[in-house]
Write a structure and sequence with these properties.
Number of strands: 2
Number of helices: 7
Distance between the termini: 51 Å
Oligomer: single chain
Strand content: 5-15%
């Protein structure tokens, strides 16, 4: 007579991880609408173009404490390469920094949306860096045209922007609440 395996109370629980293929269902992720994505873009552009002014103000204030004339001279130069380098730095600082720290940019905070990986988990730093670098591709904002609710920066980094306010009762699938609350 075969013996039944003993129940081990110290065995960790096993949970099935489902991919985000059931989008829009009660148990899945609800992608953000194109309207919310456009509002994210507008708010983020305002914040993005305000950031250099904040950096300039901080450098001028810092210059009074510690001489930072070299940095002021570099920022004031009318050099195309310096301007492109500064723009790339600001893009990565804003998008990667905000999404790595909060999972959201200012626009996403206002609209109640959040970045997740395709399986619904918190995106990796590599995915977030990929999103930020993808935004440097010319005409990337036009990748939303044609009815797609995801842009190149979503597709290439295998991420998704979800709407946390889609279900007024639960707002987020129960399995994901511990990650995003």
């Amino acid at each position: 007579m075969p013996e039944e395996p003993e129940f081990n109370p110290y065995t960790p629980p096993v949970a099935e991880v489902l991919p985000a293929t059931n989008l829009g269902t009660d148990e899945g992720l609800v992608p953000a609408t194109n309207g919310k994505r456009f509002l994210n873009y507008v708010i983020d552009q305002v914040a993005f173009y305000s950031l250099p002014f904040g950096i300039g103000y901080a450098v001028m204030t810092l210059d009074q404490v510690v001489p930072a004339a070299w940095l002021l001279n570099w920022l004031e130069e009318d050099d195309l390469l310096a301007n492109i380098t500064f723009s790339i730095m600001i893009t990565i600082i804003y998008y990667f920094g905000m999404e790595a720290l909060c999972g959201r940019t200012l626009g996403k905070i206002v609209t109640g949306t959040k970045v997740v990986s395709l399986d619904g988990r918190k995106p990796t730093l590599g995915q977030l860096l990929g999103r930020s670098l993808s935004r440097l591709v010319p005409f990337e904002p036009f990748s939303f045209l044609g009815g797609s609710s995801s842009g190149w920066h979503d597709r290439w980094s295998k991420t998704l922007v979800i709407d946390l306010r889609a279900d007024p009762d639960d707002r987020l699938a129960p399995a994901l609440r511990k990650f995003y609350r």
